[in-house]
Amino acid sequence: MPEAVTQDVLWRWTDPPRRGKAVLLVHGFRGDHLDTWRDKGATTSFPELLAQDPALADFDVFVFRYKTSFFSSPRIDNVARQLGDEIRNSLGGYNLVLVAHSMGGLVCMQYILHQLQQQVCPPVLGLLLFGTPTTGVEAIKAARMIFSVAGFKIPGLGLLAKYLSWHRQLADLESASDFLDRLHGEWALRVVNGGSPRAPANGRAWIPVRVVTGNDDWVVSEQAGKGVYGEIDWTPVQYDHRGLVKPASRNDPRYQRAAEFLAQCRSSKPPELLRQLRQFSDEIWGLRDCVLVRNWECELHFHESIGPDSTLLPSPAFGIFEVKRCQYWRVVSERRFVLAMAYGRIAEEEMWKRNPLWVHAIYSDALAEDERGPVSEAIRNNLSDPELAWARFFEGAWIKVAGQDLAQIQRECGDGYAVSTYEVPESLLGSEVVFEFGFKSIRPASLNAFAVKSPYLTLGADIQIVVHGELEFLVATPYFVGGPRPQIQVEEKRKVKIRAADLMLPLSSAQVRWRHTQKGSQP
User: How far apart are CA 482 and CA 485, in angstroms?
Assistant: First the structure.
């Protein structure tokens, strides 16, 4: 016999208790915790078969009971809240597979929606619905209409029509009821196919659902039982509405459908992990609205020292970073673009908000402690005047858009940045054109590492890096998407080529590190 966990509400069929995963059975209209799941004269019941199955020995088995009768009964929404309280108070720590009969399936669906509406991840590995009228019971609607019409001649039948409207659970079960209309809308938004991207990630969930209908079920039609679920999520069996959940043995097809589903749910990921994956995929999918650049071609050179004729910051602490040539295609969504140098991560993040063609970022984190002060002081001392900053941090800068040279319209500098603004012709707005540019800037001379980052969402890249010294290693981040890795080719121990034919996410990067050779030479 089952053990009562909560008096008259929750029973356990397994002894000793098992932890981790559990099956929770929820009966339907006018059902209970015993007779719903066992045929008359049978020696065993559905929950007993589950509890005694050695193939399901890792599942605890519970049955939930609620008030339902032909007389006063609570609304389905209230029962769902009661189910939620019982799961929270008595089944904490379990990941559940909900097995429901008839109206019990609507109770379970409403419970899941209550959780998601509160942005709480329901501890549900799967939902198995036996004869659940997901679109309602047509017979209730038809009977109410017939009784209403016949009531004009036979007053007693008119009272039956009022009864069907007055009974809370029967009113909710009627086809096209307000309750079912709300449930369907929320279920589609939050659960079907993992929910709609319109809902926040913590307000929807990926929950496997399996629907079982009875070929002899005259209460719930096949169409009403299937609802939004199709061939791969649906199984018919040759039983009537009550008989759907009264398997006689483990060889019974009704039991086998449940055992198969539980085995699949066993390998389901924990709901919280699925929610985190969904949030991650949302972030990836959200990139569809960001800037896309195509065919990014770039050649970068790293010189160890600055020559005497250069206008760049004259200090032995710095060498030259050169964008010899960079080009890519992108849509002109704004007329103004910037070319920027940023010192430190905060300044870099700020520059990325200003529609940049390129942000040359310099960090001092990797420098020796005795070098950080002089490098920082030299950079900040030359960020007081826009003209001086441009001369010290950019040399020979040029920009072309659709083959036309662009002139600077504004220079500015501030705490940790120097930036120049360019404006494209108004006629190019909305067009996809090629941007080309190049410049020289500074880099800490003793820093023999560099990371080249994909500026935006990038489709196709061909990057060449030439370093002063001998290449030590190159690491490409896993943000590269498409192939398993970008193609990497090393030449003469100081040149590296990186090609990615497919999509790269923003901040995809390749870090290059090299060993210094004779000081003062140029590549």
Answer: 8
